[in-house]
Amino acid sequence: MATNIVMPQMGYDMREGTVVKWHKVEGDEVTRGDVIADIETDKATVEFEAYTSGVIGRIVASEGQVVPVGDLIAIITSPGEDISSLDVINAVPELKETQDNGSTIEPAVDSEDPPSSERRASPIARRLAQENGVDLSLVVGTGPSGRIVEKDVLEFVAAQSSSQNGSDWILASPIARRLARERGLNIGEISGSGPGGRVIEKDLINHRADS
């Protein structure tokens, strides 16, 4: 029997999530509890576990796609089950304005890139950009319709870090930066243990203990 896998609600105020990466492909067998995808919320990137066993019959949401909570992202089937007759539609409806005469006006498409503050970006991407002083207008988005996701900011910061001297472009949390300033440490010399090599508070504490 086919089981619908939907975007989970991983927090009280979560309204949507981004499928960052699929760890399984269609046809793969899965056991309940297997990590099948990475889901990005507005607070973190979380491993999403299968809540039933079977076979990945269909992946509906592509990597980088933003999906409302409760919407279908995949289907797990029994081995050998045929779901070819299922009609799965996962499209975002276009917004149209209606004139008084009943005709519709297609929304205008702006070919120019919007300002940094208006760039389409996930909540985590915006937070990382703010913490690291990144201008989002300089970041190339790889999400749907050019949406900037977490890995885009991480890759941008990493590229800047390797091409510039000093610690301005080191990926680090605000607390880690403050502690480094207070203790007169070069944050660029500290190994980060956070996501993407991000320097976090405990890295500063461990560095001081080792020195």
Quick recap of the structure?
With 211 residues, this protein is α+β, with helices and mostly antiparallel strands. The chain is built from 4 helices and 10 strands; from the N terminus they run ββββββββββαααα.
What string, H for helix and E for strand, traces the elements in order?
A: EEEEEEEEEEHHHH
CATH architecture of the largest domain: Irregular
Broad structural category? alpha+beta
Evaluate the radius of gyration. Answer: 21 Å
CATH class of the largest domain: Few Secondary Structures
Strand order of the largest sheet: 1-8-6-3
Q: Name the CATH homologous superfamily of the largest domain.
A: E3-binding domain
What do we call the CATH topology of the largest domain? Dihydrolipoamide Transferase
Q: Mind summarizing the main beta sheet? A: 4 strands, antiparallel
What is the number of beta strands?
10
Q: Number of domains in the coordinates?
A: 2
Low-pLDDT runs? 89-118
The helix fraction, in percent, is: 10-25%
What is the global morphology?
elongated
Straight-line N-to-C gap: 59 Å
Helical run tally:
4
Overall pLDDT? 75
**Proportion of beta-strand residues:** 15-25%
